[in-house]
Amino acid sequence: FLGIQFDRRGDELTAVLPFDEKLIGNPMLPALHGGVSAGFLEVTAIIELAWALRWEAMESGHPEAQTLHLPKTIDFTVDYLRSGLPRDAYARARVNRLGRRYASVHVEAWQDNRARLFAQATGHFLMPAGAE
């Protein structure tokens, strides 16, 4: 529904949220809906974790390397720093801790200038059993 895409360059994964009118929450500003921003950040964190698990499995030659395991969200806290403008948005996640049972991720989202974030989030995730 959101149309989120991912661009991988080397070991870096960037999420892209292409602008669409349906993503506007307040047409008077106009600004991206807060739920759209939060969903964008959470999907970015989950895909970054799944990618990190797969990358780790590939490097170790684990037979599960071809399977994409998705973690489950325990909690997710979003900081809305400014209004998301009616244009494309980008996000990158950083895995702070990746354990067998638990992971912690920080995500930042921007539009025109990476130094000028419009939202950021921290999430904690339950790792899938098959990802060990």
Structural features, described:
The chain is an alpha+beta fold and 132 residues long. The protein has one helix and eight strands, in the order ββββαββββ. It has one helix spanning 34-60, and strands spanning 5-9, 12-17, 24-26, 31-32, 72-80, 89-98, 102-110, 117-126. The strands form two sheets. A six-stranded antiparallel sheet has the order 1-2-6-7-8-5, covered by helices on one side. The longest helix has 27 residues, at 34-60. It is elongated, with a radius of gyration of 15 Å.
Task: Give a concise summary.
With 132 residues, this protein is of the alpha+beta class. It is 20% helix and 41% strand. 23% of the residues are buried.
Strand-helix topology:
Elements: E1 5-9, E2 12-17, E3 24-26, E4 31-32, H1 34-60, E5 72-80, E6 89-98, E7 102-110, E8 117-126
Antiparallel strand pairs: 1-2, 2-6, 3-4, 5-8, 6-7, 7-8
Q: What is the N-to-C order of secondary-structure elements (H for helix, E for strand)?
A: EEEEHEEEE
Stretches where pLDDT falls below 50 for ≥5 residues?
none
What's the rounded overall pLDDT mean? Answer: 90
Please state roughly what percent of the residues sit in beta strands, choosing from under 5%, 5-15%, 15-25%, 25-35%, 35-45% or over 45%. Answer: 35-45%
Adjacency order of strands in the biggest sheet: 1-2-6-7-8-5
Please tally the β strands and state the result: 8
Q: What is the straight-line distance between the termini?
A: 31 Å
Radius of gyration: 15 Å
User: Which structural class do the helices and strands define?
Assistant: alpha+beta
> Any idea what the shape is?
elongated
Estimated helix fraction: 10-25%
How many DSSP helices? 1
Major sheet summary line:
6 strands, antiparallel
